[in-house]
């Protein structure tokens, strides 16, 4: 039987970028947007607050876009300060590259294993799905989901008792499956 685990975001990740006011490097997004129209041209920013001094920084979302070329539902979501849109935009590689930011997901996700009935089986097959592109070490997920230490998970990989089609070292942010034989 294939078990299904889901890595789910619990809040918006911390934005890593240097603060101009205090030189801190951590900002938190609260889902607020600022939209500015200059005649027929539109600018839009996602506002982030420095975790140290509270200074506001603007992450460019739209720059000098013709109003007619912006989808009305996107504009509505920005005017409504939609936190779901903030999450989508923070994950957008174009937005991250344009604003030269990185994301820190520590403490901003959880693993849903659907219960602990799999823990006592000799062999478990697990499909891990990511609800958002959250980079996490598979070893950490497997250790947390199976109630093992990371060292035990590493030992199981070395012994060939934990196998997957993907490399389990490093970080992943895409779906994968693995089989664990105790």
UniProtKB/TrEMBL annotation:
It comes from the Bacteria. This is DUF1062 domain-containing protein.
């Amino acid at each position: 039987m294939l078990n299904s685990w889901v890595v789910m975001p619990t809040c918006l990740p911390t934005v890593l970028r240097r603060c101009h006011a205090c030189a801190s490097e951590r900002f938190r997004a609260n889902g607020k947007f600022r939209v500015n129209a200059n005649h027929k041209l539109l600018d839009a920013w996602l506002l982030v607050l420095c975790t140290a001094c509270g200074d506001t920084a603007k992450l460019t979302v739209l720059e000098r876009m013709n109003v007619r070329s912006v989808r009305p539902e996107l504009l509505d979501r920005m005017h409504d300060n939609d936190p779901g849109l903030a999450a989508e935009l923070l994950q957008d590689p174009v937005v991250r590259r344009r604003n030269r930011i990185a994301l820190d997901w520590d403490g901003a996700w959880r693993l849903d294993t659907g219960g602990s009935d799999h823990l006592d089986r000799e062999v478990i097959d697990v499909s891990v799905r990511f609800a958002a592109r959250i980079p996490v070490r598979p070893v950490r997920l497997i250790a947390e989901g199976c109630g093992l230490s990371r060292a035990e998970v590493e030992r199981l990989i070395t012994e060939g008792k934990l196998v997957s089609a993907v490399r389990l070292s490093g970080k992943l942010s895409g779906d994968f499956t693995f089989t664990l034989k105790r």
